[in-house]
Amino acid sequence: MMLLSTLSMLGRTGDLHIYAHKEINLLIKPFLIYMGKHMSFRIKLFPLNPERQELLFENKSIRIFSFPLKHRIATNGFLFEEKESSRHIIREMIDLYQIPLKQIPEIKEGADFITPDGTIIRNNILTSPGNPPRRYAYCSDTAYAPEIVPYIKNVDLLYHEATFAESELIRAGETYHSTARQAAEIARAANARQLVIGHYSSRYNELGTLLKEAVAVFPNTELAAEGKVFEL
Fold first, then answer.
1. Res 75: pLDDT
2. What is the Cα–Cα distance from 226 to 146, expressed in whole angstroms?
3. Which of 108, 155, 173, 184 could form a disulfide with 86, with the two C-beta atoms 3.0–4.6 Å apart?
4. Boundaries of each Metallo-beta-lactamase domain copy (predicted)?
């Protein structure tokens, strides 16, 4: 609530969209009743569905999905998926065929080019493929759940919790968390390109064991750490 108050004091005017489970109303609504008249922006609440995958947001560049995880309380993972980018027009082709600048956007979207004498120049001659779309999946608190694999298939980067080492497998099941090895098994089943593990139990002062267990199953694994950046 302090964050919302601070945003208002700083003069925010744009709507704030909050995606959370429906129970968030129990926290937000009393605040809005008390502070609503004094807020400088509107708050819009969007409930997450803990039972199935849903599209949360889409624009011309990206789609964001939520999907159910397996935990003691309703919990969701998120998939961030870029859309295919436009094709790259080859500069030499512009010069060769004297392509007008106004036609370049439609060629980048797949159109052929017709020369003044009626010759059709196919798009694949004029362009090269655009940048491949990138996909990132975030799986926070969750027990080992192979059923999430279809939601995250072929992601470039997967963040998956790895609370425990394999020696605490029973404890992981009891608390609806995952071991590092289980996180790696999910990454392998999903054919992810890279795995980042995190959400470590405080019992581990040294994280080498968790990393070793994950790497044994999925070699391209790294440890999450505050401030660490991973390039897609």
1. 96
2. 28
3. 108
4. 133-200
Same structural domain, 121 and 208: no
Does residue 1 register a pLDDT over 80?
no
pLDDT digits (tens, 9 = 90+) for 149-171: 999 999 999 999 999 999 999 99
- Report the amino acid identity of residue 113: F
Strands (E), the chain: 16-20, 43-47, 54-58, 62-68, 76-82, 88-89, 113-114, 120-121, 127-128, 135-139, 157-161, 194-198, 221-223
**Cα dihedral: 131, 187, 231, 85 (round 10):** 20
Residue 33 phi/psi, 5° resolution? -60, -40
Same domain, 70 and 165: yes
pTM as predicted: 0.84
Look at the chain and report how many structural domains it folds into: 3
Q: Is residue 112 part of a domain?
A: yes
Structure tokens, 9: 């004091």
Pairing outcome for strands 135-139 and 157-161: parallel
Per-residue pLDDT tens over the stretch 50-98: 999 999 999 999 999 999 999 999 999 999 999 988 899 999 999 999 9
Shared domain for 99 and 194, answered yes or no, is no
**What range does the domain containing 26 cover?**
15-47
225 within a domain of the structure (yes/no): yes
CA 183, CA 189: separation in Å to the nearest integer? 10
